[in-house]
Amino acid sequence: MSRLIVISNRVKRPGTGAEQGGLAVALSSALRESRGIWVGWSGETTERFTGQIAFNEDSGVKTATIDLEEQDVDEYYNGYANKTLWPLFHFRIDLAEYARDFEGGYNRVNERFADTASPLIEPEDVVWVHDYHMIPLGQMLRDRGHKNRIGFFLHIPWPPTRLLVSLPHHSVLVETLFAYDVVGFHTEEWLESFRHYAEREMGGTVSGDFITVGNRTIQAVACPIGIDTQEFVAASNSEEAAIMREQVDVSMQGRSLIVGVDRLDYSKGLEERFNGYARLLKDNPECHRNVVLLQIAPPSRGEVESYQEIRATLDSLAGRLNGEYSDVDWTPIRYVNQGYPRDRLAGVYRAARIGLVTPLRDGMNLVAKEYVAAQDPEDPGVLVLSRFAGAALQLKDALLINPYSPEEMADAILKALAMPLEERKRRWRKMMDSVEQQDVIWWRTCFTGRLTGEVLNPAEAETA
Ligand code: ADQ
């Protein structure tokens, strides 16, 4: 087994227990087994960049991190990554900011990561770079003479060509992807958009999984990420989950719970979700007092203005809606801005009759899969899912909706509330089959199999 080097913006410190996400779990086990290294930003800032690498080892996973300067964080992380690429790649060119400083900072920080990783890479290592923060990193490693197999995985959508061309120097950025051996996306849709760009804007040719531009041929694949399903099922059966469920149930007094769990991000369609719920209450007085929407949304990227704005908008929408419909003993929206440990979150998912997942665009969306995994097989809830989430391509037995339509959302909620047990069970079983079969380890194998040449077809990874 080749040693794996993972490079990502933030290194999730291993061994942090319950707070660890599925991604950290999947990568940590591969890193541990191959005695690899996880390289990235420590999350800390320093007055003057020194390039000093901090090495740690926790639960068998080695990490190598660097601190960045404030200016790096402003230009690279808050700037190019989260004010330019994130909105553009989520189809929001109205929110995308194009500034030379951002682009300069993005390249500078990527060079810093390349300098950090380069001396750690040995000839037989396999290198896996993650996400939109690090698109040019592979090219920078090639520039430093590395001939290793290097792969890149994009966790967010790939936008249609006609949107992407609004990015200044888009072709310079996309060309750097051709320095990798394998480039991965969550869905065929994002992969298709990438191929389209390569063909139309770069004169590339496509042959099966392979795309050739000039003298470079890369393999471009769709490998949908999953969750650590077994772990999540265990979490939902844990004592902590039972306590949380009980706490929620008591407070509901027989009402039906609808739950939403998202980072506070405009791409998650929270404003549209509140509007859809408002439409439900407006058109269906019989729902008053009988339903509660619990929206859990921990703030993220608070230094970016568009995130401050969406937060203010949601505060005001929730306040207005509660003001209009609440009664002395019923509040229609419980809007919570904090995070919960996974066990407790699993308990909330299980207590909910409906999981409402309505992003306007999402690379995959793991909350949808977590909601499914946390259900009681004998009395499962219903997933209402945006057709614009990557997860909709796998979870076809959810109630799929257009999140821009408040009427469609309200209709789906009504349908979910009235859905007979047999239908709920049937839909849930099919979704659970997918969540079980294509879990996070399957995803990792799907991608690394391509990267090491061990798996030729993602479908084969299923049995790996
Ligand atoms: P995100 O945009 O962060 O990920 P998502 O896939 O839904 O979106 O993952 C969010 C994670 O955070 C979930 O595991 C969820 O449980 C957790 N979380 C959210 N709110 C929480 C809360 N209040 N308390 C505790 N945990 C909470 C990006 C892409 C996605 C893609 C993933 C993985 O935008 O499309 O699915 O990466 O590739």
TrEMBL record:
Protein's organism: Sphingobium phenoxybenzoativorans
Name listed for the protein in its UniProt record: Trehalose-6-phosphate synthase
Family under the similarity heading: Belongs to the glycosyltransferase 20 family.
One Gene Ontology biological process: trehalose biosynthetic process
Molecular function terms, GO-annotated: alpha,alpha-trehalose-phosphate synthase (UDP-forming) activity
Pfam families hit by this protein: Glyco_transf_20
